[in-house]
Amino acid sequence: MQFWKRDSISRPQQAQGPDGGRAPRRLRLLLVDEDATSRAVVARRLSHLGYDVALAESGFTALNMLVTRPVDIILIDMGLALLPGLTTMRKIRAAGLAENACFVMIGGRNDRVSAVDALDAGADDHVVKPFDFDLLDARLRHLCARAEQVGALARHNAELDARIARRALELVETRDALAEMQADRARLVSSIQALHDEIARLNAARN
């Protein structure tokens, strides 16, 4: 298990965003690849591009890491032998370890079948080696931005549902209160009528 963070030769990151606010946070990425050289190269390049990169040498290692380490992107090599790439993705999702993460599968340049298999299995994207890292960076950030928009929409819908539920409860409570007020009014009218009837009876008896 390894972790990579940007070192002194990486591109500087602005302390503030374009609008003068805080700069966007660094995206957290988990790379799952059994090839140690490939892991090191990809991790260093992505770290230079502004990612916090965690490394796993197998799908089992990735599952263990995700228990305590949330990530935004999971980059999985399709050629994993110990636990195949698609199986790794399915197990991570089944365990609920990365509900908000984007899954990107890595295949070979001439392996179109793996791309179809990855997308059919529910991967968010499929990329091929060797990487054009600027293009990979753009695709990863686009995926995360889209996931954030979908998440924001889901949260907004959940808030609307909660507000509707609260309003429905308030309407029920208001209806019950109104019914109680109407019952009280009916009892009061009945009491007043009974009092009038008693006064009329007493007046008649006196006469």
Automatic annotation (TrEMBL):
Residues 28-144 form the Response regulatory domain. SMART domains: REC (SM00448). The keyword DNA-binding applies. One of its GO terms (biological process) is regulation of DNA-templated transcription. It comes from the Bacteria. It holds the Pfam family Response_reg. PROSITE patterns: RESPONSE_REGULATORY. The modification 4-aspartylphosphate is found at D77. The keyword Flavoprotein does not apply. One of its GO terms (molecular function) is transcription cis-regulatory region binding. Residues 1-23 are annotated as: Disordered. One of its GO terms (cellular component) is cytosol. This is DNA-binding response regulator KdpE.
